[in-house]
């Protein structure tokens, strides 16, 4: 089924976890490096992180040995990052931010009895937008306990209507029945293929009729992605593969199974690395959509739900 060569498949395989753990410094060391960059002093960075200055110095030296790079210039006037250290710090910031988003998301997935805010979100929003919003909420309202249920947009709407969620986030063309809403972001659906697929080298845009008649890798019925695509094309062919998560759709497309339709939020990394190639579409094919927060009709969100909503508005 795949049109990729064995070499291409090898190139898309991520490094083994053990290899990454050996090469990448621990998060504590990266946070220390960022604190030195921000404060200009190893001592002040140590105090901010609640460790002794000798321990901070030892951690920096250990990180320098680990990477084989000089990261910090030390002098009586303070500590500053070397040019190499500045570059490493820029990369470290992305790692630390990703770790914070990972922690916020996984913490919210726990079924917590003390939850004061119950959130339901579509898969795309839950994976790519919500963790950042939860980090901002925790900074504004420390101690707020949040629980999260991730599912397709139809399931999210059902949970909000039944009172199982205080606030929901959905994708799609319209506001679900019985709910009020606010647009919190905009999104574009892309048709993507593996580099070895014929459409990756195609110069002529794919017309709506051809796309509608082509078996595609799609999310399940009830997902906002599927709804937008079917509305834009007036219906779609029987899916080549039907999957219940965006990650699974991407994996199938990268493996060369066929064309897939996914959010541009979800494939930015794969497109930048050329593991997936966006397919040009005829100008008449409109796959742009709004991402919405939803809540029970006539009941404006209050408390933590209102706070989270304020953090998401476009």
Automatic annotation (TrEMBL):
The keyword Transcription applies. Residues 25-82 form the HTH lysR-type domain. InterPro entries: LysR_HTH_N (IPR000847), LysR_subst-bd (IPR005119), WH-like_DNA-bd_sf (IPR036388), WH_DNA-bd_sf (IPR036390). Pfam families: HTH_1, LysR_substrate. Keywords: DNA-binding, Transcription, Transcription regulation. It comes from the Bacteria. Belongs to the LysR transcriptional regulatory family. This is LysR family transcriptional regulator. It comes from Streptomyces chilikensis. The lineage of its organism: Bacteria, Bacillati, Actinomycetota, Actinomycetes, Kitasatosporales.
């Amino acid at each position: 089924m795949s049109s990729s060569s064995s070499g291409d498949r090898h190139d898309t395989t991520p490094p083994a976890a053990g290899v990454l753990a050996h090469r990448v410094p621990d998060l504590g060391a990266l946070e220390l490096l960022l604190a030195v960059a921000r404060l200009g002093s190893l001592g002040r960075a140590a105090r901010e992180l609640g460790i002794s200055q000798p321990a901070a110095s030892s951690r920096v030296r250990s990180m320098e040995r680990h990477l084989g790079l000089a990261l910090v210039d030390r002098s009586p006037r303070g500590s500053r990052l070397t040019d190499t250290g500045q570059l490493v710090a820029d990369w470290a910031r992305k790692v630390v931010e990703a770790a914070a988003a990972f922690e916020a998301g996984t913490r919210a997935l726990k079924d917590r009895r003390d939850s004061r805010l119950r959130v339901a979100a579509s898969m795309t929003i839950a994976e790519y937008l919500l963790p950042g919003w939860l980090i901002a909420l925790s900074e504004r309202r420390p101690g707020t306990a949040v629980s999260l249920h991730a599912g397709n947009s139809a399931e999210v709407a059902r949970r909000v209507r039944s009172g199982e969620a205080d606030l929901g986030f959905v994708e799609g063309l319209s506001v679900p029945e019985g709910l009020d809403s606010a647009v919190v972001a905009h999104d574009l659906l892309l048709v993507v293929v593996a580099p070895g697929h014929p459409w990756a080298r195609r110069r002529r845009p794919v017309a709506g009729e051809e796309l509608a008649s082509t078996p595609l890798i799609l999310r399940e019925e009830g997902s906002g992605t599927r709804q937008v695509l079917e509305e834009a094309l007036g219906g779609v062919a029987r899916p080549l593969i039907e999957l219940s998560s965006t990650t699974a759709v991407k994996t199938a497309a990268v493996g060369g199974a066929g064309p897939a339709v996914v959010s541009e939020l979800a494939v930015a990394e794969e497109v930048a690395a050329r593991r997936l190639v966006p397919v040009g579409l005829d100008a008449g094919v409109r796959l742009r959509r709004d991402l919405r927060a939803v809540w029970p009709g006539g009941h404006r969100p209050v408390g933590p739900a209102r706070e989270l909503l304020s953090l998401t508005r476009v």
